[in-house]
Structure formats: structure tokens, C-alpha cells
Amino acid sequence: MDLNKIKEAAQGYEKEMTAFLRAIVKNPGESCDEKAHIDTIAAEMKKVGFDEVQIDPQGNVIGYMGTGDKIIAFDAHIDTVGIGNIDNWTFDPYEGYETETEIGGRGVSDQCGGIVSAVYGAKIMKEQNLIPEGYKVMVVGTVQEEDCDGLCWQYIINEDKVRPEFVVSTEPTDGGIYRGQRGRMEIRVDVKGVSCHGSAPERGDNAIYKMADILQDIRALNENDAEDGTEIKGLVKMLDPKYNKDYEEARFLGRGTVTTSQIFYTSPSRCAVADSCSVSLDRRMTFGETWESCLDEIRALPSVQKYGDDVTVSMYNYDRPSYTGCVYEIECYFPTWAIPKDHAVTKALEEAYTGLYGDARIGAEETLEMRQARPLTDKWTFSTNGVSIMGRNGIPCIGFGPGAEAQAHAPNEKTWKQDLVTCAAVYAALPKSYVK
Predict the structure, then answer these.
(1) Is 75 a catalytic residue?
(2) Where in this chain does the record put each Peptidase M20 dimerisation domain (predicted)?
(3) N or C terminus: which one in the chain shows less Cβ crowding within 10 Å?
(4) For 34-63, how does the pLDDT look when each residue is reduced to its tens digit (9 = 90+)?
């Protein structure tokens, strides 16, 4: 494997990759409305010589290079969030912009740049005979990730019946290699009350007041310590071997968190006592926490116990149809995962990267100080499709992708051309590094 030849090939495709990325983000592609993105990607895959290109019933675009039975996959979700307040943008988020070094537009970092590097990485593999015998490379543009992380891979694994040997997530990694992330889940707490006229509130049972007590306990979960005398022990306890046998990986990924993200109520009028109140909780989980343990943790709070049967704690379900009309219902639970630091996939990606670019993160000049202050191999702050790939299904997953986490969901989103080139080269080198 000639690493210099791989680097030269990736650099030589910079213009094509830039044009491809700009073509994708030119049209809106929010979750459940990604068809224009999918069609653009399928056309590019066919143009650059993929051996097979298909769009599955959920709407994921899947391209194959090679004909072996074993699969090395590269995943890129190609849906985006909305643009938010347009006044926060200094340019048209769908027209975007291009300079000598960077590309702007909604989705360039999160996460359409990943599919661009993966498609051209696979092209280089084919041109330079880098796909090992018995293997084929799968590049997937997945849908609905922003709505429901991993739903697409549940469909690919269970319905398309595709199970790769391992998967590279091309989510943005700021020039590093990421081997895991905290999990998350979406919890709902419902409280019942009894309405009455607001002029005599003592005749009723105000659900909002009950919820106020519960919210203070939830806040304590996030903010308290875990000392012996603390009644509601904080989530930081999971970093302590006394409470968590998986504390080492928990320390690597970081402690769990919980926050109230939405609140709802019902009341006959503004002149009445509220007869119900509900909240949504965003719960981030570290190693050693499960959906059962997180629900039980809320149910055990003193205020929840105090109000007894008037409180229900549950997990949300997701059942929104994809752009094809496919409904694939799933619980809103996105498990924590981490591939071991000494796993063969981790080592292979590190070897491919360091052989090409050395031991430190690289990138555009404006990114270097931040990137090189961090270890080469680290973890994501946010959630990815790895929650399904490895978290639910145990398929090894590792992350390396163009762009920056801080650009995700932000106005004036941008990425860097050098990242597209770097990732395409590393992707091309990875299969031979893995299969020796």
C-alpha cells in the first residue's frame, strides 16, 4: 500500500469533493425530507463507479465497492436540522459559500461532509486496488438521524439484513479518532392534579406545584455530589467504583447529565388550577447506566414517591414516517457505547491515520491550536448512529470524520476542504490496515 499515492489521490479530488458537498447542501434536507440529498448522493456514487447503488425502503442510500461477502461500512447521516433564526446567519444557509480553504452551508459539518469523503475514499480504494480479497466496502447515506439517532441502522440491520464487520462513523471529529460517546434517552414525567376555580385554589390539587417539587429533585440529580450524607446522590456517582463497576470507561466518556427540556400543562382556563403537568427530560448516560436504571432513578426521587400514583415516569417512542412513508417505531433510547482502546478496529484506524499524517491531529490553520491540545484518540460529546451500530447491536464502531462538533446545529456552519481530503485518504487506507 503506497500511502503517498493515496494522499496524492485524495488531494487531487478536492475540487470534486467540494462541488459534491455544495450540491448536497444546496437543497434543504431536514429529517424526513431528505430525498433531494439522497438523489444527489446516489447519482454521485454511480458517476464515480460504485459497483452497486440502492435506496432501501426507509430511504437510506447504500453504495458498494467490491464483491466480497464481508463488509467494511462507512456511515454518514445526510439529514440536517433546520436553520433556526435566519437573522443569525451571515449568508444563505442553502446557497452557502466557498473560499480557498472552507465551505459554508447547513449540513457541511453535521454531517454531509462525511458522505463526500467516504464516497471519494471508496473511489480511491477501487482505483488503487485497496479493497482486501473477500471484502466489500459499503458507504451509507442514512436518514432520520437528527430525529432519532440509530433508527436507520436498526432498519439496515434488521430489515435490509446487512451486518458489517465494523462501521466507521463519519460524524465530525475535529481531526481526531473517536471511540465512543455517552448515550441518551428521552424521558417523560406526567403528574395528575384536580382543577378548581382559581379564586379558591385550596379546593383543587395543582399539578404544576407537584411538578415543581419533582423538578427540584431532578435538578439535584444533576448538581449534587455523591457523599454518604447526600439524600439525592448526583449522577457524578457513576464515576466512582463504589457505585459503578464500569467507572473507568465512565470517566473516559464523562458523567451523565439530566435536564428538563420541555414542559406542558392542562387547565380549564387561565382562571383555574392546572389539572395536569408534564415534562420532557434529556438524559445523557455514561457507562454503567441503562434505560431501566435511569427510569428507576426518577421513580425513586423523594417527591415522586411522595405523590405516588399521581406520577407516571415513562420513555418516549418515535414513530414519525421517513420521506418514503416508512414508519419504523422504536423507543427513544440511545445506548452508551465505546470500542476498547486496544480493539483491532481502533488500532487499524490509528495505524492508517498515523501512517499518513503522523501522531497529532491536523487541520486548517484556525483549527490547529484547539485540535492539537487534544489527544488523537478521544470521544464525542454528542450522540451518533453508533448508539444502534454498537450500542444496540454490538457491531464495532469507530469515528473519524470531517468538520467540527462545535459547528453542529450552529448558524454560519462551515467545514474545511483539508478535512475532506484527510478523511478520504484515511478511509482509503483503512481496509488494508485492518486486513493483514
Answers:
(1) no
(2) 180-302
(3) C
(4) 999 999 999 999 999 999 999 999 999 999
